[in-house]
Amino acid sequence: MTARRWAWGWAALAALACGDIASPARGDVYEWRLETPAVPGPGLDTLSFHWSLDDLPVRVWVEDTEDLPAHVARALEVWEGVFLYGEFRGTLVGDSSSADVIVLGGAPESRAPAARLRSGLAPECSGATDLDVDAANTQLRLPVRVFINPLPVPGVERCLALTSIHELGHALGIFAHSDDPADLMYADPEVELPSDRDRRTAEAAYHTPPTLQAVPRGAP
Description:
The protein has helices at about 5-20, 70-80, 155-170, 195-205; strands at about 35, 45, 60, 90, 100-105, 115-120, 125-135, 140-150, 215. By secondary structure, it is of the alpha/beta class. Strands 3, 4, 5, 6, 7, 8 and 9 form a 7-stranded mixed β-sheet that branches. A two-stranded antiparallel ribbon has the order 1-2. It starts with a helix and ends in a 5-residue tail after the last strand.
């Protein structure tokens, strides 16, 4: 065997040895779609959504409290950076009546939406995203409502930053939570930025045909 072949052989053995002792790789993506009771009939519908190119940039209005506008502006930049081809873009707007997404400071409203995604259950702050899905499970009625509830305790700024990015992840179409604490879209996130798995999941969501269509406020 030539020296080159010996080198390739040792490289292959080294790779196998490392593979034996390394921690198992996580799945490429996690389930991002929303499961909801099927209409009509028993069982569940699996609902997926992403903003279409015609919807971009998604218009986001933010309540001017607790530095939320700055946190949400950064959250939009972070998620825009996840996509390779500009599949998602957002912009802050000054008029809530024209917004696709409304971000409010405080606890979620008492009304019961079709789906409420609760997350960020840290002692410093919590978050929730409300989705108004029609009875036929075909329309997402706008605006999407996001609630970020800070508490007057140490560490709240960091919590607001990561919770803002997390909730914007729901608003852009990642409706389910990851089962891995190493992902930003875990129910009680600890990491501050999307992981590689978050990125792959967002890309998968934006390259999967949606079952929900965004319907503007006041549309029949």
